Amino acid sequence: MIYEIKKGAGAEELFGSWKEEETIISSCLHQIMGRVFGDREEAPSSAAAMLGDFTFLAGRPDRELAVFQPHGKEWEYRLIIPQNEEWSRLIQDIFPGETRKITRYRLKKEPDVFNRERLEETVRTLPKEYEMQKLDEAWFHRCRNHSWCRDFVSNYQNYEQYQRIGLGIIILRKGEIVAGASSYSSYPGGIEIEIDTREDYRRKGLAYISASALILACLEKGWYPSWDAHNKASLALAEKLGYHLDQEYTAYEKIVLDRH
Question: Is pLDDT of 259 > 60?
Answer without folding.
Answer: no
